[in-house]
Amino acid sequence: MADTAQAVVKSADEIGTLSKKERKKLHMQKMTKEELAYLRRKSVTDKVWPFFRAFILIGLGFVIMYPLIYMVSCAFRERGDMSDPTVMWIPRHLTLDIIRETVQAMDFWNTLKTTLVLNIGCSVVQVFSCALTGYGFARFSFRGKKLLFVIVIMMILVPTQVISLPLYSQFRYFGIKGLFSINLIDSKLTMYLPAITGNGIRSGLMILIFRQFFRGMPKELEDAAYIDGCGPFMTFIRVMIPNAASSFLTVFLFSVVWYWNDYYVSTTFFTNTRTVALMLTNLDSELKLRLFNNISANINPREAIVWKEAGCLICIAPLLLMYVLLQKHFTEGIERSGIVG
Amino acid sequence: MSSKKARKLPYQRRKALYGYGFISLWLVGTVIFFLIPLIQSLRYSFCEVKVNPGSLETEFAGLKKYIYALNEDQYYTEYLSSTLLETLWKTPLILIFSLFIAVILNQKFRGRTFARAVFFLPVIIATGPVFKIISGDMSKTGNTGAQRFSTMFSTDLIGELMEFLGIYGLSDKMNTMISAVADNIFGIVWSSGIQIILFLAALQNIPSSAREAAEVEGATAWEYFWKITFPYVTPFILANFIYTVIDSFTSPMNQVMNRILELKSQWDFGEASAMAWIYFAIVLAAIGIVTFIVNKFVYYEVD
Prior knowledge:
heterodimer, A: two-stranded antiparallel ribbon, 17 helices, B: MetI-like fold, two-stranded antiparallel ribbon, 2 strands
């Protein structure tokens, strides 16, 4: 016992004079068998694991990127290349014609403008109304709160398909029964009205996110504002919103994505208004109509792929651009907003 | 003291009123755009709905539509069972997969930001019509990215790998299971974007002290996962489970929903509503049961 203690003291004395390697060796000698085995195992896994990890990440990353690479590869080739068995990834005849034709067929710039105005408008009002509601649920106690929150959960759970039809008749004869009714179908109000009242696309989820987020914020913030004579609504606008700015941005971005991608709700309520998602779903007939001036034109289905992939590409290009520029807000915001608590 | 108490009560009441004020906008919208349509749709499912120019006529028909959907419709029960079965095995796979990827993406290595960007990419695409096209709904062409990818990736590769490893004796069942997983890897990877983000958020909440303690004690990666990582992510598993199930509603490959839409476009509103409600009720019941079980499990964990 005394021996080992002395050895420790001795090594402690010598430690200053020894080189790094020797010091490590000395350290190893003092270890038990189990510790050594653990270290050996650890060094092996530390060496093997990065390769294994890279293998998994590259493989699965390929699964994700595959459709995008295929899109790019198809969008820039001539249609004849589709029937050429030697062309797999790299097109033989590089061309911008297909992209140009698809842009023309989709009336892309006008469609883009309509879609952007609609999406951003809806998202802004929806984020605001959902934040308001989420704040109400997070900080105030009132009668029936539990029951009302069950409705929020129901909004998350009920698929749109279940209510879309009665919703259609709701918009078709919008008003008070017996007094007046207006036909809102095809009007953009079918998007704006639900959004402004916190009932737009996936608003249940957004209310839940905001509720969780506001519950996690310190109460002292508001108390200070109340003492200074600020009413609850002004407190919300002046104190809570600036403090929650990054969370707002994340939810807003997701909202824009969901509105951009939506084709179900818009096919139900729009017959004339064109959004990018709708144009893409109807690309086939639009192509035939505008490109070939003939609705029953026969395009070889294999060759039609080039336009389809080009359509996909220009449809997600704005989203991709936004994603690349604002990637941080997409992911970090979710982590910070504490969606689950 | 007493004066303070007297002042406090009205304050409470005033605060409650403010609460109603904050949710009033939503409440009005919910009644008009959610509750009334929801009740209407339930009513349609018990009715014979006739579409006339200018109005919808409903006539009470009892359970007829439900019985028809379950007994006579030639596609519905088949689609229903296959969709439910698919949700049943796909959901756990998505959860395990996304947790696995989240653990990997939480480690430090070069190119991590890029890897994260790639794995979150489905989040912005997978809800839209583009996903519908790339996941194999290219009408009439029969030649899709996903299909081609699956055939490239699946049976041959797995079979050869097995033979290479000297495994011949595996039962056919196991074999079909493995190839089914390989066939579906596209669908699984593409539907776990949000789940990976949520799990990653959970992993980043693990205090570094827990990690250091585990290292000092000499825990292996396996032990670390089960004793530290897993308890920290359990609350997120439920949220992810619910999210995955809800997401399957909007999947373009969901046959039940497609059948419902088909009937809707044939103006058979009663039938479509009945089918939607059967499907929704089953899924809701399943979510309820799982939530109950998981909550119990988490409770014992805390205890």
